[in-house]
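Title: Comparing notes on inverse folding

I've been comparing how different people in this forum approach sequence design from structure. To keep things fair, I'm posting one structure and asking everyone to reply with a full sequence. Here's the target:
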């Protein structure tokens, strides 16, 4: 049988022709790409493969940037908190920032563009009461109040692109020149990017796919004075500001955007913050500009007969793929880094493109491909977690990045990726374009809604933080589950109600965050709409601190539906009698081990004897269910991802929606095994999601069950 090739992009580099030919054949690659720090030789470009060439729009052009340093990109930053011990305080606002990355902008009047704030009261200090010493990078504040704290919100130029800076440091590039980012809102830069694009396309006739990395504005990534990451927000718009943008914003929106609307008390509008109207306006404003400007470049690429591919990372701000303006750019495809199942679905679900591509891990960099380390371990974990999501909605292509010469030194890794490539193509050829069976429709309810589809709870593109892993587990579970998923916002519910086809709503997160909702739940229309929907038969899952804000004797504003609330020490005088676990429950039937609630939630108690307490320990409820009219609600104290928790969530959703019997269509009793069915092609797939042998009873969708034994990581295709 001839081995099928295609659907895979291979990184390569000059001086590695013979080995590239070998890997091209073994992995079945049909495209070759360069990476940040590598180039493709003419010999490589003559191989029988599409050529992807990385294209940096607003960095990597230092000859231009150095001649126009006044057109560098900007950021808004906030100083450290400084306490006034008298009626004056001097603030060294650059303390803690890396002078090789940013420098203060004194070209634009600080009195107009900066802000000094009394953080004890929140009041803005009159501009007459502070002065800037540009030689010492100090702001002196007069008429201060003793023992109040003060900060400066200030504008800086970005003089080193943060992604190149990271790669520079990680790979020890020594005296390699720093890439200077410039701002395409500025007149010379706007003209330069169009003229250079024309020139570049003429000089790169052998390029088939222009891989924009990405367009104009980098996500917020600021380094400290030791060259280490200080603040990173993969969704951050803080590095997309400029005096020109702010003036254009005021003209379009009719009001002036204060620095504080970007600084946001030093949180820089992280995705956990409930977004203000002003910040949402700024996002919308930037997305319109980016889409219009990016389209000009994409049109040039198409006119030259090439494809335009966007990397979902680096300078991706303003291109939000689930936003209102992304479709206007006209891209052929999007490629992004696959950290897990959730990030795979984030990429594979992107609309308005011809194809999507996932860059799998590990990246071929020396931090992983080093003596004594086994990169197969990370590759296997990455593939098995992503494969769950691929079974629901595959990307069209897979690939890798970095130095192929490093990966080639690890033959077991090369062999493993060869097997991954073959398995991916088998899955893709079988199910691409085929709708998988779904037993439920689930909606994630938060402040962001559709625009952050599959991005809820992320902070920096799947980086691990203990404060989020209890909630990121929800997305990871759903990414490979036999349910349809959509993302809705509180504003959606208030404006449009809840769609009739939704079976279950999930609200999860820490109180006060954009995910749980905080003050959103004080809106009487929102709370009444959700209550009514549950009461009339809807299913609701609350995880962590759902609907939490202290108001009128409740902390969980949906406590009546959930059947539980959280003790804030205000009602300690009220006795709480309800602490008896029920002996067994549908939700926990498959769970053989102690449930992992992660960081969990303390002091949750049952409101009445009608609440079914499923897990009770340490004097508090961690898992419960409650009938509410015709509907049901389930409470879970925390939710890190693992096989048992994924099953627990699945059972919770089918129980909450009164569809218990439908769970057993295409079902595996073993939590390490999953079944995905594709009725349109009369097939279903049984997958072992672990690197160990597994046995399970399988339900085939027609009421029949049988036992299977699966090899480590095996997929077994069956006919319906």
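Reply #1:
Here's my take.
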């Amino acid at each position: 049988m001839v081995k099928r090739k295609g659907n895979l992009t291979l990184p390569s580099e000059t001086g590695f022709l013979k080995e590239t030919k070998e890997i091209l054949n073994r992995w079945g690659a049909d495209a070759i790409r360069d990476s940040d720090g590598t180039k493709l030789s003419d010999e490589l470009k003559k191989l029988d493969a599409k050529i992807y060439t990385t294209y940096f729009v607003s960095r990597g052009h230092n000859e231009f940037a150095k001649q126009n340093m006044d057109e560098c990109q900007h950021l808004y930053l906030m100083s450290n908190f400084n306490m006034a011990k008298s009626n004056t305080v001097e603030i060294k606002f650059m303390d803690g920032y890396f002078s090789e990355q940013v420098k203060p902008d004194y070209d634009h009047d600080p009195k107009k563009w900066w802000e000094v704030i009394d953080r004890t009261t929140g009041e803005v200090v009159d501009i007459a009461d502070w002065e800037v010493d540009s030689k010492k990078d100090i702001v002196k504040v007069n008429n201060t109040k003793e023992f109040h704290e003060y900060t400066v919100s200030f504008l800086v130029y970005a003089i080193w692109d943060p992604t190149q800076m990271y790669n520079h440091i990680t790979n020890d590039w020594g005296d390699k020149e720093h890439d200077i980012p410039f701002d395409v809102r500025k007149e010379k830069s706007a003209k330069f990017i169009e003229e250079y694009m024309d020139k570049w396309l003429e000089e790169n006739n052998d390029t088939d796919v222009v891989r924009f990395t990405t367009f104009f504005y980098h996500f917020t990534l600021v380094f400290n004075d030791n060259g280490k990451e200080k603040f990173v927000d993969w969704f951050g718009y803080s590095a997309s500001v400029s005096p020109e943008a702010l003036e254009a914003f005021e003209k379009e929106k009719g009001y002036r955007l204060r620095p504080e609307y970007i600084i946001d008390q030093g949180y820089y509008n992280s995705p956990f913050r409930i977004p203000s109207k002003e910040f949402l306006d700024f996002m919308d404003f930037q997305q319109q500009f980016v889409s219009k400007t990016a389209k000009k470049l994409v049109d040039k690429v198409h006119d030259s007969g090439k494809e335009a591919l966007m990397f979902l990372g680096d300078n991706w701000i303003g291109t939000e793929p689930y936003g209102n303006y992304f479709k206007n750019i006209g891209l052929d495809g999007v490629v992004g880094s696959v950290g897990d199942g959730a990030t795979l679905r984030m990429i594979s679900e992107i609309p308005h493109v011809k194809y999507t591509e996932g860059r799998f891990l590990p990246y071929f960099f020396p931090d992983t491909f080093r003596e004594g380390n086994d990169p197969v371990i990370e590759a296997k974990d990455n593939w098995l977690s992503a494969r769950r999501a691929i079974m629901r909605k595959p990307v069209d292509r897979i690939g890798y990045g970095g130095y192929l010469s490093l990966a080639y030194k690890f033959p077991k890794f090369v062999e493993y990726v060869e097997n991954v490539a073959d398995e991916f193509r088998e899955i893709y050829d079988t199910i691409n374009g085929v709708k998988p069976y779904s037993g439920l429709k689930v909606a994630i309810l938060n402040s962001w809604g559709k625009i952050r589809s599959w991005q809820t709870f992320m902070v920096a593109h799947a980086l691990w933080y203990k404060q989020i892993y209890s909630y990121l587990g929800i997305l990871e579970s759903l990414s490979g589950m036999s349910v349809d998923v959509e993302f809705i916002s509180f504003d959606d519910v208030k404006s449009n109600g809840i769609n009739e086809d939704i079976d279950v709503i999930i609200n999860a997160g820490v109180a006060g965050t954009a995910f749980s909702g905080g003050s959103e739940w004080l809106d009487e229309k929102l709370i009444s709409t959700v209550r009514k929907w549950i009461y009339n038969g809807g299913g609701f899952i609350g995880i962590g601190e759902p609907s939490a804000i202290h108001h009128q004797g409740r902390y969980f504003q949906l406590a009546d539906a959930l059947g539980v609330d959280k003790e804030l020490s205000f009602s300690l005088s009220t006795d709480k009698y309800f602490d008896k676990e029920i002996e067994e429950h549908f939700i926990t039937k498959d769970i053989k081990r102690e449930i992992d609630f992660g960081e969990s939630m303390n002091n949750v108690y049952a409101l009445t004897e009608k609440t079914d307490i499923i897990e009770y320990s340490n004097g508090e409820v961690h898992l419960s269910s409650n009938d509410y009219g015709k509907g049901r609600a389930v409470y879970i104290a925390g939710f890190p991802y693992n096989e048992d928790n994924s099953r627990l969530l699945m059972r919770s959703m089918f129980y909450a929606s009164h569809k218990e019997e439908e769970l057993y269509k295409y079902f595996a009793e073993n939590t390490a095994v999953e079944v995905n069915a594709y009725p349109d092609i009369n097939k279903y797939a049984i997958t072992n999601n672990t690197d160990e042998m597994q046995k399970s009873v399988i339900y085939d969708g027609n009421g029949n069950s049988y036992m299977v034994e699966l090899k480590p990581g095996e997929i077994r295709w069956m006919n319906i």
